[in-house]
Write a structure and sequence with these properties.
This protein is mainly beta. Helices cover 11% and strands 41% of the residues.
Length: 556
């Protein structure tokens, strides 16, 4: 039977026209590639085109997509205060961020003859784009041509580009565990570096607060005073005080140098959920802090006098988060689905604690708030160099200048995350309506953090994913997929180029921002869930705290 089939095939092949066997000019030369099936069908996979240049026909889609764009466009550069820099400039549409950064450097420093681009400040660029009747700042991520195409910007008008300087220093990515620090006898629930990055503090289920030496990674002080789980901790912006609160509603203020309790206050009738210190640029003494509790109250305290300055009563359920803003407002988020802003400054002491406005929109409890100025407020006068100041006055002036440079005429932004799986972006001082509702998470959002430069923010969720968003417009950028358990917390490097995430799956992961959809490094080693996480303000190390009762230090 096989011989008969082979004979029949050879007969058909020999009787086929010459043009079918060898191919002609119109077919491009079809050669038989050994298939015995469908031998007279030139489209069969057994046939291939012998002329490489005729394999594909060029279509309109393959032509240059930028052919309709002009070669040059006219732009006007502006700084963040809106002041114009230089005159109108005609630049190529294929100009990228690096070439425009060099142009800005030459406009600002016309006498600088150093051609080493590595020594020059990098910049990011934003264009005003109107979408749905709202004007947004859209970042230039590649070239001007892509910006024009993606957002339909007209090329006949002048394009206004706002530039923002980025961090000159670079934080090296953490890749290895250098130390494992035992000591706690129960799960570690909170970790935080001091504003200058020289000390590390931890609190956990064993009712102790511990201070650690960052240089030697050894215990410095073990502080006992709480009678129940230590739920939240916070450093004052000048680094001279440390506050911790527990499940019984007790607030203790510590001297981190001596490791001694300065004062113990029965602050609330139920457990304390959050602590926030007043920013240093608003109060050089750094002696006021706010506590939020499950008893639905928020209280403002004076750390020196141990006196309750004001009690903020207005929420109908547990207050989950409190944030002290940089513009004279205190923000609180509650299980009653609302966010409230309170006045915390004024010439008349009676003005402190007055309700300013209520923000509504979430359909479930609000778990967390993040402010664009969080990092600047947390680190006070210190930067990546961690310089020491000769006096409190000098430190205060440095904090004021640092905040002024960061703000640069822009409004403070706030993001809220909820059990309704959504986030809202607000300009809290300008109005009570949200700028944008951000969807995408499939389970509750439990942590949010703005990058130190305010360009992005990251949201962590129980859906095992972290999402990156544009810090100004709220546009979605990317989803970081890799964890196989709920993501509990996120932390940014001080140069905003890296993000580290902590998860229920007992690992932390390092991601490169903003493009990094793939995990750059996985930081394994913990034997149980990683509850606590922080990145040192000087960028040198990352600390993780776990249910396995250990703290791990990660470095480059």
């Amino acid at each position: 039977r096989f011989q008969l089939q082979l004979f029949t095939f050879l007969f058909h092949l020999s009787s086929a026209p010459t043009s079918e066997k060898m191919g002609d000019k119109n077919t491009g030369g079809i050669a038989w590639a050994g298939s015995l099936v469908g031998s007279e069908n030139p489209n069969n996979l057994g046939y291939r085109y012998s002329h490489a240049h005729k394999r594909y026909k060029k279509t309109d889609a393959d032509e240059d997509p930028d052919k309709d764009l002009p070669f040059n466009v006219v732009v006007q550069f502006k700084n963040r205060e809106g002041e114009e820099v230089g005159n109108l400039i005609d630049i190529p549409t294929n100009s990228d961020i690096d070439s425009m950064s060099l142009l800005i450097h030459s406009l600002l420093n016309p006498d600088d003859d150093d051609e080493d681009s590595n020594k020059k400040i990098p910049y990011s660029f934003y264009a005003k784009v109107k979408r749905n009747g709202v004007e947004d700042d859209v970042e230039v991520t590649s070239t001007l041509a892509n910006l024009i195409k993606d957002h339909g910007i007209g090329t006949e008008d002048v394009i206004a580009l706002t530039y923002q300087p980025l961090a000159v220093f670079r934080v090296r990515p953490v890749t290895r565990c250098t130390d494992t620090m035992p000591g706690h006898t129960e799960a570690i629930l909170h970790l935080s570096y001091s504003p200058d990055g020289r000390n590390l503090a931890s609190g956990g289920g064993d009712t102790t607060v511990r201070f650690w030496d960052v240089n030697t990674n050894t215990p410095r002080h073990t502080c006992r005073g709480h009678k129940n789980h230590v739920l939240c901790t916070a450093w004052s912006p000048d680094g001279k005080r440390f506050a911790s609160a527990d499940l019984n509603g007790v607030l203790i203020l510590w001297d981190p140098i001596k490791g001694q309790a300065v004062s113990t206050i029965k602050a609330h009738s139920k457990h304390i959920t959050s602590i926030a210190w007043e920013p240093m640029h608003m109060n050089k003494q750094c002696d006021r802090l706010a506590t939020a509790s499950k008893d639905s109250l928020v209280k403002i305290w004076n750390a020196r006098t141990k006196r309750n300055i004001a009690t903020l009563n207005g929420h109908l359920d547990s207050v989950e988060c409190v944030k002290w803003g940089g513009e004279g407002l205190l923000y609180t988020a509650s299980r009653d689905r609302t966010i409230k802003a309170w006045c915390v400054e004024g010439h008349d002491p009676k003005d402190v604690g007055k309700l300013v406005r209520t923000y509504k929109g979430h359909g479930h409890r609000v778990n967390f708030l993040a402010l664009s100025s969080d990092y600047v407020i947390r680190t006070g006068p210190f930067d990546h160099k961690c310089l020491k100041f000769k006096s409190d006055e000098e430190a205060y002036e440095a904090a004021v200048e640092k905040y002024k440079t960061f703000k640069a005429g822009e409004p403070e932004r706030m993001v809220s995350g909820s059990d309704d799986f959504t986030l809202f972006l607000w300009h809290p001082k300008e109005g009570k309506q949200p700028l944008k509702r951000l969807t995408g998470h499939q389970q509750a959002v439990n942590h949010i953090a703005f990058s130190p430069d305010g360009r992005y923010f990251a949201s962590a969720s129980f859906d095992k994913k972290t999402k990156i968003w544009n810090g100004r417009s709220g546009d979605f950028i990317s989803t970081l997929t890799g964890h196989v358990g709920a993501v509990y917390q996120v932390a940014w490097s001080s140069d905003s180029r890296f993000l580290v995430t902590a998860s229920k799956d007992s690992t932390a992961k390092l991601w490169e921002m903003p493009s990094g959809k793939r995990c750059k490094e996985t930081l394994p080693g913990h034997a149980d869930e990683v509850f606590a996480l922080d990145w040192s303000p000087n960028g040198s190390s990352v600390s993780t705290g776990s249910k396995d009762r250990t703290i791990k230090i990660w470095k480059h």
